[in-house]
C-alpha cells in the first residue's frame, strides 16, 4: 500500500512550490493582484476563471514556477486539490494562501493506485504537501489508509479474495492492535448460524462459509458492534444473475471491507470502546447442495425464513450476524452491506442509503457525513411495508414479490434481528465508483466509512 506518511509534512518554511487555488468568484481580484508575467500567461492560455482552469505560472527565475488551479469546491472538501496530487511532478508543495485542511486527504488518495494485477510501470515520486496544522497529519493518514484498504479489497478479484482471505485480513488487523479473533466455519455453522451456512454451503472446498469475530478494547467501556456483509462473490445462487449483473459481484464483500476499515480506525485511535467486529463471509455459489427457492431456513434468533430468492442472500447472512452481535448487549450497532440494487436506482452510486431505528443516531450520522464530505441519505424504516415480509408458511420471507421499496424492505428484514431499544444503523452502500473523479478512481470505493468514523469519534472520544 502507498506510504501515506511521506506525503504530508509540517510546514517549517522549507523550500516548496506554491499552489494558487482560486475560487471563480475571486478570479478577477486575484488576477488583478498578479504581476505582468502572470497575467501574460493567463491570457496566453485563455483562462477565464472557470472552475477547472489551470496553468503553470512562471516565477522570477526559470526553475521557480508555481501552479494555478481554479476550483469551486468548498474549503472543507477533501477533493479540492486532489487533481493536483495526482498530476503534479515529484516535489514539495504548499498552498499560497491558507491551509489545505481537509484537502490533505484527497491529496494523499490521489497518489494511491491499485496495481496488484498490472505490470510494473514507471512511477512518479511522492508529491509532498506542507501544512501548518501538523496535528491533522496523523488522522489524515489513518483515513487515507482506511479508504485505500476498502478500495483495494473491493478491487481484488474473487479468485484471490474468498472467505479465507477475509479471515486473514481480520487476523492481520487483530495482530496489529492486540485484538482476538474467533471463527465459526463450515459445518460448525449449521446449528448456530444456519442462514450463514445455507448461503455458503455450495462453495468449493477451501471457500467454506464462516463467521469471523474480532474483539478489542476494555470490557468496561461501552460495547459497539460493527457488522459487514462478506459475500465474496455472488452468482445469485440458483436464482442466477445474468452475466451483466454478475460482472461486478467481486464487490459484494464491500460491506466487510468497510467494517474492517472502520474497526481499524477505532483501534488505531484507541477509542474507549469495547469493539465487536462481525463478518459473515460466504460465497453464494451453485452446486448440487445449493440452497433453493422455497426452502424454509432456520435462523440463530429462532425465526423461520421462507427463501423466496437465493439472490437476496446478503440479508440472510447479516440476520445471523446481527443476532450474534445483539447477544452481547451492545450500546450501538452499525452494519455495512452492498445490499440492494433498489438503493442504487433511488440514490445512484455516491449516496449510501442509510437506515436507523434511533433518531439521535440518524441525526449524528447525517451531520457527520456532511461535515467530512462523505454524504449519506436517510431512507425510512417504513412500518407500513413490514407486512410485505409476510409468509404463508414461515415467520417471514427474505424478498417480497413485486419489487416495491426494495431497499426499505431489506432494511425491515434486518430490523427483525435487532431488538427495540438497541440503537442500530444500516448502510446500504455501493462500494464502487463507476467513473473516475480527482482522487477517486473508477473501482472500489469507501462510501459512508468516514461519516461513520466521525460519528463514533464524536460520541465516544475521551
TrEMBL record:
Domain of life of the source: Bacteria
GO biological process, one term: proteolysis
UniProt keyword terms in alphabetical order: Aminopeptidase, Hydrolase, Manganese, Protease
UniProt keyword Protease present: yes
Alphabetized SUPFAM superfamilies for the sequence: Zn-dependent exopeptidases
Family: Belongs to the peptidase M17 family.
Record's protein name: Leucyl aminopeptidase family protein
